[in-house]
Write a structure and sequence with these properties.
single chain; 1 helix; 33% strand
Length: 272
């Protein structure tokens, strides 16, 4: 017989990180706040103007999945706890942060934070009377090397042209945590020819091996998506791809690589 459903919880205990002593908040003064959850050390931390002021232990076992809200809270469907003041530069990162990173965020803004960049940022630069606030991810620019050229014809608008002989682009920080689930998407067109080695479309670097790699296998004439078992020089490649001989040279193809940590598959979708 089916298992009985557990009754839905109607109340939950709040876990707080706050200053050790009450008081100290100055009304009418701009204050930089940063809250960080450390899933490794199971710590909830609060930083004020770049300094750690409070932390508490907590094992987070659920995720809020009903959107983001600015200036108020919602509890059991009721909007309340309205903020009476001014807010600016709201940033969301998908990583834990320590005091040096928070200090960089406080002093330099989102571009000063090392490691993976902000996944959502609201700078409230819209003029008064605007009906909405635009948010964006602060993606770092790619630097071109070896004659990589922009402005070539692409499947959507324009594309980047790579010679296959020393041309590439690089971004100095990672954009994904490859220990988690992630998806990589790209359009690519391999030049016709006798390619005898792998030709990488995009990868995220480790010290010795990439965290993921999406590439064309010249030996087997197929598209491949893979990740290495570790960052060791002799680490095995875990990969998935088309049947050998399936790739069509000289034609645009849309590639999507998916790494799913539940239940741990890595797979490649080819479309178009």
């Amino acid at each position: 017989c089916p298992m009985p459903l557990k009754p839905r919880e109607t109340s939950s205990k709040i876990i707080r990180a706050m200053s050790a002593q009450p008081g100290g908040v100055q009304a009418g003064v701009w204050t930089h706040l940063a809250g960080s959850y450390d899933g490794v050390e199971k710590q909830l931390r609060l930083f004020v103007n770049g300094e750690l002021v409070g932390e508490t232990s907590h094992n987070m076992t659920w995720t809020g999945s009903h959107g983001l809200q600015v200036g108020a809270g919602t509890y059991s469907g009721e909007v309340k706890s309205y903020f009476p003041g001014t807010v600016d530069e709201i940033s969301l990162f998908d990583k834990r942060m320590w005091e040096p990173q928070v200090q960089a965020l406080y002093e330099e803004g989102v571009t000063g934070v090392p490691g993976r960049p902000v996944v959502a940022h609201f700078d409230f630069e819209e003029p008064a009377g605007s009906p909405e606030v635009l948010g964006y991810a602060h993606v770092r620019p790619a630097v071109l090397h070896g004659g990589m050229e922009l402005g070539a014809s692409g499947p959507v608008t324009t594309s980047a042209r790579l010679s296959g002989e020393g041309a590439y682009g690089s971004v100095g920080v990672p954009h994904l945590n490859t220990e988690r689930s992630f998806t990589v998407s790209a359009w690519a067109k391999i030049d016709p020819g006798q390619h005898t080695e792998e030709k990488v479309v995009v990868s995220q670097l480790g010290t010795h091996r990439p965290g993921f790699t999406l590439y064309y296998s010249g030996v087997q004439n197929r598209w491949v998506f893979g990740t290495y078992r570790s960052d060791a020089p002799d680490a095995d490649l875990i990969w998935t791809g088309q049947p050998a001989g399936s790739a069509v040279q000289g034609e645009w193809v849309h590639l999507v690589g998916v790494h799913d940590t539940e239940p741990f598959p890595t797979w490649l979708v080819r479309a178009g």
